[in-house]
Design a protein that fits this description.
By secondary structure, the chain is α+β, with helices and mostly antiparallel strands. It is built from 4 helices and 5 strands.
């Protein structure tokens, strides 16, 4: 009789443990599905935050004192992109540290698309002069982790110029930074 009771107790405990395992798996699976949905929503919200930051940062950059352009650019870009773009703007110029186009390509070809660097032209736009630069289009192209790519159109209505660019934004240390800009030739209206 004792053996029957003990065997019954083991059977009851075993059944309870199995139910517990099944319940735990069901909760884990539903949490995983919830986390995926939650993660998608967080990434969506973050890409919208990055977009708002990008639009404001670009327009503020063009409103700021032109004499502080390099410092203002440095505040909104990654160190690598800042160094790369400074090299691109100074290719073949008679200034200290200036590179030839070939030296520039060799130095940066493993990190950036040097064909879209905007060699010899300014940050974000190819024009030397501007009146008022506005972001007239900023559309998310892709998102991967903390990296977002945007299709951007900058417009200067007074000078009738449009500057299509693709901008990569990364989130580092809880702030957004421009990590790359693919510049094309300006469209004059």
């Amino acid at each position: 009789m004792k053996r029957t009771i003990i065997a019954s107790l083991f059977l009851i405990i075993a059944c309870k443990e199995e139910k517990k395992d099944i319940s735990t798996q069901a909760v884990s699976q539903s949490q995983t599905k919830g986390n995926v949905i939650l993660e998608d929503k967080l990434q969506s919200n973050e890409s919208e935050e990055a977009q708002k930051w990008l639009e404001k940062s670009i327009e503020d950059y063009f409103k700021a004192d032109i004499g502080e352009g390099a410092q203002n650019m440095q505040k909104i870009t990654t160190k690598d992109y800042f160094d790369y773009k400074m090299d691109a703007m100074n290719v073949d110029l008679d200034v200290d540290g200036s590179l030839t186009e070939k030296e520039f390509q060799n130095k940066w070809k493993t990190k950036f698309d040097t064909g879209k660097a905007g060699v010899g032209v300014g940050f974000l736009i190819a024009g030397q002069d501007w009146d008022e630069i506005k972001v007239t289009k900023c559309r998310l192209i892709s998102a991967n982790g903390n990296t977002y790519q945007y299709d951007v159109l900058l417009t200067d209505k007074e000078l009738k110029a449009e500057y299509p660019i693709k901008v990569k934004v990364v989130k580092e240390n809880n702030s957004f930074l421009i990590a790359d800009v693919l510049q094309e030739e300006p469209k004059l209206n």
